[in-house]
Amino acid sequence: MQQPFDRRKHVYHNNAFVELVKDAVRFFNGTPVRCLPPSEHFSETGVYALYYTGANPLYARYAELNRLSYDFPVYVGKAVPKGWRQARTSYAAASQSSELFSRLREHGRSIEAGDGLHLHDFSCRFVIFEREGSDMIGAIEAALIKLNRPLWNSCLDGFGNHDPGKGRYEQARSDWDVIHPGRSWTDRLKGSAKSKDSILANIEAHLQALKKS
After folding, report:
1. How far apart are CA 194 and CA 29, in angstroms?
2. Would you state the pLDDT for residue 139?
3. Minimal CB count within 10 Å: which of 21, 72, 96, 207?
4. Across-strand partners of 46?
């Protein structure tokens, strides 16, 4: 016979894990800032953030905050080996993956294509997670997003999107592609996107909240 439901028997908590995530975030914030994409090729997977210091009025607040130190990312992401979600990738294979470098390079191409953006206005930092540490990638990405509330992870979503491929173009352009048109594959999207004015209003509200942080 099934026992009565007792929520306490289903909740897991471990302070050691909480402290581990905090320690990884501290390490991340102390890593060197690199150009985007990094000039040196490297392997491995991990977590990364992009920082803006340019002159686009839309992101003036980010440029101001990051003038002296890179503490306010506009975007946070992760790079895991192919097959990771299906648990088909071994730690040895992960160490040979170049997904992190490739992802940063891909973001560079999106920025170069996006209207109103210049690649030289962006920098990045990243942490490489090796072997068993790679199991932390999702948790650290989530912690950094929660802590920093990056604009391109929240009210201006879609920066990390890929070409959906043939037969999948019924969807709408993302908010990011409405504000920064230019990626060639978005011209094939047929769905009804949000209005530019409504997206800009959401950005303004986000930046107002950022000023109070």
Report:
1. 34
2. 95
3. 96
4. 79, 128
